[in-house]
Amino acid sequence: MPPAADHADHWVSPLVRASAAWAWRLLLLAGAAYVIFQFLVFFGVVVVPVALALIFTALLAPAVDFLDAKGAARGGAVAFVLVLGLAVFGGILAFVVNQFIEGAPQLVDQVTRSIEGARDWLINGPAALSRDQLNLAVGTFTDALRTHQAQLTTGALSTAGTIVEILAGAFLLLFALIFFLLGGRNIWQFVTRVVPAEHRARVHEAGAAGFHSLAGYARATSLVALVDAVAIGSGLAIMGIPLALPLASLIFLGAFIPVVGALATGFLAVVVALLAKGFVYALITFGLIVAVMQLEAHVLQPLVMGRAVSIHPLAVVLGLTAGGVLAGIIGALLAVPAIAFGNSFVRVLTAKDPTARTEALERQDGPLVDAEADEHPHPS
């Protein structure tokens, strides 16, 4: 007589048994993913700076390797590239702040005229509001601000705590970036020692392929961001929109979040155009931003990003959405680099052909010379 369990399975459809087997395994994987995600969130102050340091390493490592190949000391090359990079970033940031400070009085005057015009339109236009009604609305808004002053103060204190965390994260980012540039390949070799010896070489190759894709993503994103900033900034300058150059700089920084970054920062340009020049110029500015986004989506992304990182646009959009929902702006910023790294890592790790890494990378970004990489170590 068959065992009770086998007898019970006899009455269950094979499709149901297969579905149940898949279900508990998927639940186990989902639980593991949830635990890992909570771990990353708990240590986010450490994880995020290290992840950003890897992206910056992918962007700066070729310059360090070039100086190293020309005979410069590795430490000196790292110091020179870091100082130059900080000078460029600091210069852009200082330029943006300075231009906003210089252009603020002009913008305030234009906004004041716009508000006065809106007041006259509300009183003398179709709305036909009385001055008493308008003054009452302004007074109600002012009273609401005073009523919620305590909450605003609490928010300011929370913001101050956030600034402290940002400064600590920036210090950790710089510290990690220095050591990644100095000896990232040695660090990765040390990490792979936890893998069994028979699989260690394949994991090492998979990490190298992932870092190669990450470097291609960093370079391609920088080029796309520059094109977005130049195109939109030139249009703003031609139309005479105030703060055109600092707005273009913000668009450059925002474009490092694919698809939505430049559009979100470009919305600020639409607001400035609306306040300074009126509805028609705001509409033209919006059309300019949409046109540049179309250029990016149909020309730059396929030619530049598609060559550097073989990721389907749907995967990019889904990754951005999931990253934004789970971790806000930081999640949206790190989602696509993580997908780019994981795509190449998993593809090489699961490939049957030991030479799959080289072939995969040649399809993406031309041949990769491993001998050169070994001679000039970088994170991989």
TrEMBL record:
One of its GO terms (biological process) is transmembrane transport. It is a multi-pass membrane protein. Its main location: membrane. InterPro entries: AI-2E-like (IPR002549). GO terms for cellular component: plasma membrane. It is found in: Cell membrane. Keywords: Cell membrane, Membrane, Transmembrane, Transmembrane helix, Transport. Residues 357-380 are annotated as: Disordered. The chain crosses the membrane at residues 32-64, 76-97, 162-183, 223-245, 251-271, 278-295, 315-342. The keyword Transport applies. Belongs to the autoinducer-2 exporter (AI-2E) (TC 2.A.86) family. PANTHER family: PERMEASE PERM-RELATED, TRANSMEMBRANE PROTEIN. This is AI-2E family transporter. It comes from Mycobacterium yunnanensis.
